[in-house]
Amino acid sequence: MFQQIFTLLLDVAGGLLTGACLLRLYMQRQRIPFANPIGQFVFALTDWVILPLRKLVPPLGAWDVASLVAALLVQLLQYLLLALVIGLGVGGWTWLPWLAVFGMARVALSGMIGLMIVYAVISWLQSQSPLADVIERLVAPVLKPFRRFIPLVGGIDLSPLAALLLMQVLMIVLGHLQASVLGAGF
Fold this sequence. Notes:
The protein is an all-alpha fold. The chain has helices at about 1-30, 35-55, 65-85, 95-125, 130-150, 160-185.
């Protein structure tokens, strides 16, 4: 029971911080201004870890590598703490970086799935919220390839549904890959 509670709390805290770091990276890459509630939340949550990392890790073109490194370090710490609680098998420590990479990918996909669902709901409601513009700009690059092949059906854009379906398939694949690494390491 303690392990389940600890795992849940660790997953929520690690996922929130990792997601915020990845969202900061993505918002900067998409040149979305941070003068909105989402941007302010992301800055408030991540400044303490990203600003010191920027002194060590310079940006690479338009990519804020410090945000990516911060997300990876959070995931690495999360799996390290989890490994200490549940115990590691022989050679398990060598798999921790891979688990962190898979965990980071899982958080990125989960975050995009969440954004896609919020975008779909907001588009149905015809909201004029400033958040609607930010969310639309965040999901637009993901929806662009789908919109090339999926026409509007009765004036309804089905591209978010197709994107969500593909992301769910990717989550299943990631889950199996992560489980195979966990089986090998723990």
